[in-house]
């Protein structure tokens, strides 16, 4: 199985967490930040990123602001209040999932 398949289910959480920490970001900036934070281990493609951003926007978790930067229009994404709450939920879910997987992969390892 390709490593990228493992990350697909976490993409929403990754996006929400980055926006929670960085106020507002544009798409390319998100992909570069993920690449930087993971030292190149995880590369998010535009084909995966933008459908996730649009879905989060349609669900009311993101606001979009279009600004002119260097004579080009750039879309910035920012969490709504609901999006901030959802970020906490998603991070909690992911932490529980990781702990469960860790227990399955290494039964000798116990949390807490």
Written account of the structure:
By secondary structure, the chain is α+β, with helices and mostly antiparallel strands. 60% of the residues lie in helices and 17% in strands. It has one domain (5-107): Arc Repressor Mutant, subunit A (Orthogonal Bundle), CATH 1.10.10.10. It has helices spanning 3-8, 11-22, 27-37, 46-58, 81-105; strands spanning 24-26, 62-69, 72-79. The protein has a three-stranded antiparallel sheet. Helix 2 packs across helix 5 (81-105). The two termini are 31 Å apart.
State the shape: globular
What structural class do helix, strand and pairing data support?
A: alpha+beta
CATH level-two architecture: Orthogonal Bundle
Task: From the alpha carbons, calculate the radius of gyration and give it in angstroms.
Answer: 16 Å
What is the averaged pLDDT score? Answer: 89
- The topology string of helices and strands comes to HHEHHEEH
The neighbouring-strand order within the major sheet is 1-3-2
Approximately how much beta-strand content do the residues carry? Answer: 15-25%
CATH superfamily: Winged helix-like DNA-binding domain superfamily/Winged helix DNA-binding domain
The CATH topology is Arc Repressor Mutant, subunit A
Number of beta strands: 3
Concise description?
The chain is of the alpha+beta class and 112 residues long.
Sequence-ordered SSE layout with sheet pairings:
Elements: H1 3-8, H2 11-22, E1 24-26, H3 27-37, H4 46-58, E2 62-69, E3 72-79, H5 81-105
Antiparallel strand pairs: 1-3, 2-3
Give descriptors for this structure.
3 strands, 112 residues, 3-stranded antiparallel sheet, alpha+beta, Arc Repressor Mutant, subunit A
